[in-house]
Give the backbone structure.
Amino acid sequence: MLASTLLAAAAAAAAAGAALATPGPQLADISALTFRSYDPVESETLVDGFFSTSGHTNNWAVCTSRFWFNYRHASPGGDALAPLHVANTLSMYRTVKRLGIPDSNIILMLADDVACNSRSKFPATVYNNNRRLLDLYGNNIEVDYRGYEVTVENFIRMLTGRVDEHVPRSKRLLTDDRSNILVFLTGHGGEDFLKFQDAEELGSQDLADAFAQMHEKKRYNEIFFLIDTCQAESMYKRIYSPNILSAASSLTGESSYSHHVDFELGVSVIDRFTYYNLETLERVHREDPNNLADLFATYDYSLMHSHVGIRNDLFSRPLEKAGTLVTDFFGGVQSVELTERAYQLSQKAAPKESHNLSAIGSPDAPRLGALPSGSPSPRSYNNVLPAFKNTLGVLLRTTAAFGLVGAAGFALSQI
Amino acid sequence: MKVSLEPLSTRLFADRRTHIIVAIWLVLAFAAPVWWKTTEVYRAPLPFERIRQCDTPEALSLKLEVDIHLRLSGSAAASLSHGDAARVTEQVQRGISQVFSEAAPQSAGSRRVVLAFSVDGAVDPKSWPSDATPSDIDASLGKEHGRNGAYDVFVDCSSQTESVYVGQNRALFLQLPSGCSKDLIVSRTIATLSGLFGSEQRSLSKLYAGRRSRDIDYKSMRTVKYAPQYQIVLSLLVGNPQDNIVTWDIEKAANAYIAPFLESLSNISDFTITSQILNFAQLPTVPDDQRQSDGSVEFTMRPKSLTSFINSAEWNLASVVSLAPPINLILYIPPASFSPLVLLHTDGSPLASNAFLVPQWGGIVVRSLPKNTPRVHYSVDALHHIMEIFVEQLRGLLGVEQTHIVNSAQLLSGVHVQYASSPELGLTRWEVDRLFRARTVLNIVDAAQTLTSLANLLEQLSGMVVPDHIQTLVARSLDSIEHAKLDLEQKRYSSATFYARDAITSAEAAFFDPAMVPLLYFPDEHKFAIYMPYFVPVTVPVIIAIIREVRLRFGGTLSRRLSKKKTA
């Protein structure tokens, strides 16, 4: 229909002596056909497969818990609660693995001292249930950061991508702008901070800045930030980057509670918020149609004893009615695209020698010198050190300055 | 022993006190600048203005110049009257420029990338020998014909029907019927060139518009994120080696089929190929079974169940050797209990290639083996068809756009359009050129944005140490951006690709340097909080003392002067 009208117009225009004589469309029509009309070849309906609706292609999860089971500073609440946070994290780790996120896409940070602790009656195991049905510390877990490596600095470095060059691939967060990330933090916290290893704190502003750095460098498509600590809502209050959904176990001013105690182990084994989340998530399977609004609807104050805080003002998609599926964050559902045809290649005999693939460029392109790989000098642990590069000069000047002042004072006193 | 202190006169006492207070203040006055200078953090000076200038819309509005050489053959020249040949060139130039000037929206403050054409033409009777087909001439041009950004259009007027043949070596062949007029040549040339470069212009305009809407863009979802190095991992996964032990001649096959393909892209990224064989590779989901008419059972999987085909928990596909992002190409042999395994379309029709692609990750080919074949060896010839599928999947994953003329049915109605493929390499020079141009533009833009983010971060945190190597990297990145833009203007596309790649690599190295963590540097409020408990209790008496001294010394004269003024 378009073609016939164009041809008619072309004929008419030709008769009137337009810029382009017959045959074929006029310049303006060429322009319209090329740039503004529907191109059947590039049409997306030719592609068959299964694609996620949120536009993400891979899922990542960052699960952290840090509580140092530290006997020297045995604070009253300290020893009792340590297995709890590890069990929270491992339960969440097990859930996301079961739903399909591979180990290469999970960063697990644990102060990993609970399973083999001499106080534990069941060595080499971590349970999240007093019936001890499931050993979370099984034989298929991969802890990326353990013990001393769990620090605020490493956490921020991992999130923003500024790791040292010797850090292995499994410890890096290799996300891109089509990754959905689930960030799960648990431990002890207070207003605007989260405790790390009894010695440090992660501030809510630092966390918000780290997310902002990730947004600047397009390191995520969407983030679901789940946090289970006391006064957890304060940790997400300062986030200001788009596409981040947050859920916290308690509001500012409220504490989060543990669920039950295993009397043989002598410690609480799981927190209420994580426990009720897991109850719902255990029924989720890889192709589950439930959305996050359904998950949030299962939260109940009478069971959790704390109000759950949800922040979705930065999140653009709706949470209900197939807007955001639970598996968009917890599962590793991958899109697939069927390959319709193969590219016709001529039959080749095996070559005599193999091609050398490295360091080949096209003949007319100049080769620059090799790029410096990372920092040429070893990483200095004291970041103020470079300021004193001219130490000798500075020392001399300072001595001279004070010497002058001293001389001036002496001279004055003699007046 | 009796110590006698000399009685101080009040005058001497007052002078001594003044001397002491002045001495203390002199020390403070001399020491303060010394302290300030020595506690300064070392910040290598960065060219912030240059960085800001690089990210403006004017700086990022690029023009890609393409040269078109029209070669009119003897028969074409014969049908044209004298002097028409020059007019053909001129009209094509005007027409193309007009069409492409309407391509990108011209709003102020927006960045745009446009293609600009310069056409020149000549009558070259030897360019198209009679009885030569376009593909012969194309083959005779050879792979090194022309350069990125210079293309030939051969026009011949001696055939019965009209046809267009897009060759693989940067050449376009128009066959027009005998007795073609100037207008026919002009209009067909303009339509063909617009259609051919139109899809490139469309994708360049979309690239700058960004991914704002939520609709699915398959091409950007499928293409792996750019990295200067990739490793291609070829894996043979055998479901159950008790049914079949499978081996393959992968090194020879990869060197024959995949290595030349990747070498032609070496200007953009470096590729390494590794391979492995994994046994006992179980599927995480069970395929559906269908009973066939002849009594055998066939196992099928549809796209929905293919989403969980990759058993990431058990298949060890991650490499610990290299940090380069992997692209996985998998040949999967299902166990006999699930053979033959057939992949279906969503509507149930079988898929001919039995292969699928996971966007941004890799590709998988499923091949079922016949029963009772305990040992199978895939030779290079047997791997030929699988390599063809892998090459097709690699093209999709690396963002290679198929050459086609937009809306050819309407732009060139009645014309037979044919596209050459490249059986030797897997890529035609048109496709490589287009990929290089797109990648160059993207790299320049990304490098400019990365540098701007770095500048923002550094300005925000005035206490952050900036080591010298950051300054070197930033300067190198800026120089590479400018060099790349200069090369683009002067149509040296290979050099531009190289410098653009260097620009983005340096910019990312600077931005992701381990020293750039904001957490390690204290904001100014912390510094006040540390110094104040020490210095405030010390400075308060000193300040009060000097105020008292000044008032004692000059207060008397001041009040006397004031009272003098009053009385006078």
